[in-house]
Amino acid sequence: MFAYIPARGGSKRIPRKNVRPLAGRPILRRVIEALAQVPGLKGIGVSSDDPEILALAAQCGARTLEPRAAELADDTSGFMDLTRRDAPRFAKAFGTESMLFVTATAALVRPEHYSEAVALHQRNPRGLVMGVTGYEMSPWLALSGDPNVEVKPSFPEMYMLPTKDLPPAYTDAGCFYALSLAHLGDARGFLDLTPVRCVVLPRDVGIDVDTEDDWKRLERALAERGA
Fold it and tell me: For position 50, what pLDDT does the model report?
């Protein structure tokens, strides 16, 4: 298995977020350093359209190839676009189609979390292994509708159950995904890659960084960890 980190240069909501310093070190460096401690990885590949990012990645010991195609470095290119159209060149370079897709802002994910994902994938190379977090409040208790007119339970069959009987629920942490390129098949989205299995991350670890508020949460979590 190899690690694949997409890290494009453009980011509208958080400019240059993939190389933004987090407690004095570029966030991408933190992610690469954590992955370097994961046993069994054949290497860490960083894909970018940006020369500065590619230079930083190489300095940190990651492997870089030719800059990513411009049409795969815009706001509309998602997980499946990169997995099908960009990641295969890294798979060829590393000699394996088993891939750990890691976001460039997964700064608090620890090596043991990645190792757990790798082990789950190796047990059954089909499907997807993803990092998730639990909800602070159960989504089964959600209300929906116009608050000035009327709201109703989103899951009426669950709403009246004792909270202790509500099943656990998880959400994508936006940090990492393990899969095999050989088993993509006709999947249109990553959740079509069945079975889907999970590594449950603490909420102060699995932080999906899309906004400045997310970045501030990341900084607080890092400060509390003392790192």
Answer: 96
Q: What is the mean pLDDT of residues 112-136?
A: 97
Residues 109, 28: Cα–Cα separation, whole Å: 12
> How far is C-alpha 211 from the geometric centre of its chain's CA atoms?
15
Q: Residue 173: what are its φ and ψ, rounded to 5°?
A: -80, -10
**pTM of the predicted structure, to 2 decimals:** 0.95
> What are the sequence ranges of the domains in the chain?
2-134+170-225
The CATH T-level fold of domain 2-134+170-225 is Spore Coat Polysaccharide Biosynthesis Protein SpsA; Chain A (3.90.550)
3-state helix, strand, coil in the chain (%, to 5): 35, 25, 40
Rounded Cα distance between 206 and 214, Å, is 11
Could you tell me the sign of the dihedral formed by the alpha carbons of 136, 141, 142, 147, in that order? negative
